[in-house]
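Sat 14:20. Reprocessing the chain from the morning session after the first attempt stalled halfway. Input below, unchanged.
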Amino acid sequence: MTVLAQRATGVLRRFPWTMAVAAAASAAAISMVHGKDAESAARLAMVAMLGIPLSVALTLWAEEHARLAIWSHVLNAAAVVLLAGFYFAWPGPEQKHELIRYAQLSAALHLTAACVPFLGIAEGGAFWQYNRHLFLGFLRAAIFSVVLYLGLAIALVALDRLFGADIPYEAYGDLLAVTALVFNTWIFLATIPWGLRQLADDAEYPKVLKVFSQYILTPLVFVYLVILLAYLVKILVGGEWPSGWIGWLVTSVAVAGLLGFLLVHPLRDDEGEGWIRLYARWLFIGLIPAAIVLLVAFWKRILPYGLTEPRVLGVLLGCWLLAMATVYTARSRTGTKLIPVSLVVLLLAVLYGPVSATHLSVGSQRNRLSRLVSDVNAPDRAREASAALRFLMDHQAGGAIATAMGTELPQVEWDSLPHRYERQDSVASRILAGAGIRYESRYTFNNSEGPFYISARGEDVTEVAGYQWLIPLTSMDSQPRYLHDDTLRAIFDPKTGVLEVRTTRGGLRFDIRGLVHDISLDTLNIRGTVPAELLRVESETRDRGGSLLLRHVNGERRGDSLTIDHWSGDLLVAPAP
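Finished this time. Tokens:
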């Protein structure tokens, strides 16, 4: 216990700023669990989590490069000020593009911690050994934290069930926040060695890394590359465009392949490890066509639909992958530090400013909307213009919308639109009406194939006179309901889209699929939110009166086939005859 206490204290002395931001993130997460200003608490927790890799990077850089220990505190204090500024400037994760930006920044900071201590230092064995400690330390901390959380959670359950301690549900969330953010960080930091430059003399190579790379990662990469090669042949022979799903396969190849390459890099000069040199050479040769196919797949989507943040990042990462594959194919002796450093530079370069992923995407969608407004013969004009307008509204880009429309816009509270789809649809309809374009909601359901989602307008008033019971129902309900002297059981058949309600005093039958089918025929382009009366279906049986007031229904259409996946609503049941 004495040794454990000494190591724990040593971590606090060496990384006080890291432990402070980890504790702040944990406290904010606990506040979020208890519902105390959950939105601000979640934002604070996410920003504080960015401080963990940032403070580790600055502390280690100061240890290796600064002459005075005070510089570590100066740099970390400045980092906290920057994080505070980011907290007040960042809108939060509710908007998709801001969540992407956060993930982008988080990835850049974690990669920074992997390479910043060695900036300005010639790459050698120390760099690999340092990252080996980080990699194994991360895995060790994750395993220890999971075991610790499960053990303590089981102890709480035992206190609750055996001694009646009445453990609140929030206690498990609190325990998870403390374990994942405080103890996990603490355990990880304890694995980072002192004197990073002296790691060059460390010749240790865990055999488990070689086994993992040689017998797990290498076969996986080989399988991925064979599939990619076969798909490339299919494209060239069949004249097909690459599918957008190819991005996931290329990403899997890149992650597994580069991880395997980095893990076995120190063994590349061993005479008995010729497979490593063969693996590295063919890995990067195979990544060249993979990156090209990925770029073509993105180009296919960008050409008709414009840029979005995922597409910008996809293209940039495809270009980066192509560049890395070309460099390591041409110069096999290139060091490994180039990989994280170049990726950090790329991610930070497109984070903010005129070349940021968001700025480029807004400009692209503005041009797309402008082209559709002026081209009355554009295919799918209404649908495409609606999609471009929604993208700009989600980004609160009122100026870009005005430029694209070439007219003055109505007074709009742009900040509230991304969170209120009904309000967004109403404003978008008025904007496009000025150009003579019919607006199509993101949930528009027409004769084309694909998924649909329809919901009832919440403010509508529904007539319920003549009914005795109102029973909330969903497509998942099957348990019996007891209505004083009667019993009710609802059975929904997803194949036929029919709901049967069986009671001891007469049954009810509702054709939900028929209702949706009639709506699609009568109104070819209904909105996602419709008058409640449109989603009211009467029972087809005469045994007993009943109505089903659907609140929402979703499913999918393929040709003439219509499938109802899920629905929810209220069942009105009349008195028994």
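The longest strand covers residues 546-558.
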